[in-house]
UniProtKB/TrEMBL annotation:
Keywords, alphabetical: Cell membrane, Disulfide bond, Glycoprotein, Ion transport, Lipid transport, Membrane, Transmembrane, Transmembrane helix, Transport
Biased composition (Basic and acidic residues): 1-15
Chief subcellular location: membrane
UniProt source species: Scophthalmus maximus
Transmembrane segments: 31-48, 68-93, 100-122, 254-274, 329-347, 367-387, 399-419, 520-546, 558-582, 610-634
Positions of the Kazal-like domain: 444-499
GO terms classed as biological process: lipid transport; monoatomic ion transport; sodium-independent organic anion transport
InterPro entries: Kazal_dom, Kazal_dom_sf, MFS_dom, MFS_trans_sf, OATP
UniProt protein name: Solute carrier organic anion transporter family member
Source species taxonomy: Eukaryota, Metazoa, Chordata, Craniata, Vertebrata
Length: 684
């Protein structure tokens, strides 16, 4: 009977312990769920953000806009952040953080769908071609038009207003920016509040690594969509005369935004089921957490559950003033703003640089960015977090590590200047019709004796490759009089500018001329991977420096204001002025149907390289100069903190010593009193 009773008690205790165990394990289980949910949200936002970068050239061509305007569209994401981030970071830290992140993910998804909307409103894409301007053309048109020049300019302007549909892309990107706002500051501060200091760096490193994996899929999605023609399913592909390598090709840019929107919407779901905050201490503490986690959670501060909105608003500006009065934080802010100007400008136009400089298709450029470059960054960021934990780097150690990796990457980046490709040979643009052997960037006339009998348009861009290996701006300007075949297989004959006899042919599209580029391109990719890995090694230590150099109470606001400042002063302007500088290297602009400049068709690759790389490295040089006073200020702060800690310890030690003396005095007095009483008893 006793055995049964004991067994029953054991079972009951087992059940109660199991139930308590489940209850107790919930904080750590919730933390793990939050880590998974935040990683997926980071993945979704990174995927849609990188997909936007991969569609830059597609959007330029589809809406016939220059690079600086694409920079405005790209920067509109940061404008969305700017509108709400300071308030979301400050008030969000005091409210239900997971649910605010969930609302943000839903807004991001809606914004992504709005970006794709113009495709379903705008008409079919009509690329620039000389053939379409010839009136009463037949299947085998004569490229050399005879008659008045007025015949060449006929063609309706209907649908031109549709090109302003790029404003929908801009507005959708603004909404994406608003939605993305709470994910980083609230997510990182939530992790840091409920993990040990030792594990915080590793967890942040893991989340940021996942956020770098997102762009791998973003660029791969961009590569896939760039291969598919924009109006796939609505046009006969055999009638399309251009290929993905053509400067007029537009891929199915809208398709990727629909996919990214669905993924972002799914990422919002887990956050609705997460708690506002996790228990810090007490008997209901997490059983499955390690002793270190339990002890650390006791020192963490919970969100202010009962603070009123008025009280929070009243404290906002004094708190912000305290934050901006922190010299180390302010210096760190300046350095990261300048470095991010360099980084954002470089990453935004890197696929375009690969396309233009090394003559790769948009699809291949995006594929290489996704498969080779981005994984190197992910590996670097994860390795940086791991090294920080293994080496147990303090604040100064993290700062030195981040600076060292950035400096090594900077030195290696100088070698990019030596990796050059010869410009494409285009008659009338980079070559003179009279001297087709030497490339020069002087103004060359496109009209010459060989095409004087044809009424050609100087503004058209419909390149053909002559048998002599020279590209001509259009079949008309090549002096071609006949054509045979259709679509990509069209062949132009009797091209008087191609050969002296006038019986040479030309085919659609630019001439390849890729020998020198093909030799140089693998070296460019290898160096790009190495520099990306080394620079990203310092990413996580640099980020932890931001978290650790300020008081815990200011952490959420510091992260939020850092994001606000970097996006306002780097994310918005960098794509615009990088785009404007790239535009200045354009040699041949496309023309809109009703006049006006469209997208650039061919660049001066030497000027492009110097402008793009020169601007990137100049900004990083300035950031290194600012780092010098930054290290001095950080050293002073750490020294001051150490002195304060010693003084506090001495003060505490003095108080303890005084308490001990009092205790000894009381004990000695009580001993004396007991001795006296014993003496009295003896006498009696």
């Amino acid at each position: 009977m006793e055995d049964r009773t004991e067994r029953g008690r054991t079972q009951e205790n087992g059940r109660s312990d199991g139930a308590a165990g489940k209850q107790r394990s919930s904080p750590c289980a919730s933390l793990k769920m939050f880590l998974v949910a935040l990683s997926f949200a980071y993945f979704a936002k990174a995927l849609s953000g990188s997909y936007m970068k991969s569609t830059i050239t597609q959007l330029e061509r589809r809406f016939d806009i220059p690079s600086y305007l694409i920079g405005v569209i790209d920067g509109s994401f940061e404008i969305g952040n700017l509108l709400v981030i300071a308030f979301v970071s400050y008030f969000g830290a005091k409210l239900h953080r997971p649910k605010i992140i969930a609302v943000g993910c839903v807004l991001m998804s809606i914004g992504t769908f709005i970006i794709a909307l113009p495709h379903f409103i705008i008409g079919r894409y009509e690329f620039e071609t000389s053939a379409r301007r010839i009136v009463n053309s037949t299947l085998n048109v004569s490229p050399c038009a005879v008659g008045s020049s007025a015949d060449l300019t006929q063609g309706g302007c209907e649908g031109e207003s549709n090109l302003s549909m790029w404003i929908y892309v801009l507005l959708g990107n603004v909404l994406r920016g608003i939605g993305e706002t709470p994910v980083q500051p609230l997510g990182i501060s939530y992790i840091d509040d409920f993990t040990t200091e030792e594990n915080a760096a590793l967890y942040v490193g893991c989340v940021q690594t996942i956020s770098v994996v997102g762009p791998v899929f973003g660029y791969l999605l961009g590569s896939l969509c760039a291969k598919i023609y924009v109006d796939i399913g609505f046009v006969k592909m055999e009638t399309i005369t251009i290929t993905p390598a053509d400067a007029r090709w537009v891929g199915a840019w809208w398709l990727g935004y629909l996919i990214a929107g669905v993924i972002t919407l799914l990422s919002a779901i887990p956050f609705w089921f997460l708690p506002r905050s996790l228990p810090m201490s007490g008997p209901r503490g997490p059983e499955k957490c390690t002793p270190e986690q339990k002890s650390f959670m006791k020192h963490k501060y919970p969100a202010d559950e009962h603070a009123s909105f008025t009280e929070m608003a009243k404290d906002f500006f004094p708190t912000l003033r305290t934050l901006l009065g922190h010299p180390v934080y302010l210096t760190y802010l300046c350095v990261t703003i300048i470095q991010l100007n360099s980084l954002i400008g470089m990453v935004t136009y890197k696929p375009k640089y690969i396309e233009q400089h090394f003559r790769q298709s948009a699809s291949k450029a995006n594929f290489l960015m996704g498969v080779i470059n981005i994984p190197a960054v992910a590996l670097g960021m994860f390795s940086g977090g791991l090294l920080m934990k293994r080496l147990k780097l303090n604040i100064m150690g993290a700062a030195r590590f981040a600076f060292g990796t950035s400096l090594i990457g900077y030195v290696l980046s100088l070698f990019f200047f030596a990796m050059s490709c010869e410009n494409a040979k285009v008659a009338g643009v980079t070559l003179s019709y009279n001297s087709v052997d030497r490339i020069s960037y002087d103004k060359h006339p496109v009209f010459t004796a060989c095409n004087s009998d044809c009424f050609c348009s100087a503004s058209d861009w419909d390149p053909v490759c002559g048998e002599n290996g020279i590209t001509y701006v259009s079949p008309c300007l090549a002096g071609c009089t006949d054509s045979a075949g259709s679509g990509k297989n069209t062949v132009f004959s009797n091209c008087s500018c191609v050969g002296v006899a006038g019986n040479f042919t030309a085919s659609t599209g630019q001439c390849p001329h890729k020998d020198d580029c093909d030799r140089m391109f693998p070296y460019f990719l290898a160096l790009s991977v190495i520099t990306s890995f080394i620079i990203s090694l310092g990413g996580t230590p640099g980020y932890m420096l931001l978290i650790r150099c300020i008081k815990p109470q200011l952490k959420s606001l510091a992260l939020g204001f850092h994001t606000l400042a970097t996006r306002t002063l780097a994310g918005i302007p960098a794509p615009i002025y990088f785009g404007a500088i790239i535009d200045s290297t354009c040699l041949k602009w496309g023309q809109k149907r009703c006049g006006g400049i469209g997208a650039c068709r061919i660049y001066n690759t030497t000027s492009y390289r110097i402008a793009y790389l020169g601007l990137t490295l100049s900004l990083r040089t300035i950031s290194f100069i600012i780092c010098i006073p930054g290290f001095i200020l950080l050293s002073r702060q750490l020294k001051k903190e150490e002195e304060n800690a010693i003084n506090k310890a001495l003060a505490n030690g003095g108080t303890e010593l005084e308490a001990l003396r009092k205790e000894e005095f009381i004990i000695s007095n009580s001993d004396q009193m007991s001795d006296n009483s014993t003496d009295r008893e003896t006498r009696l």
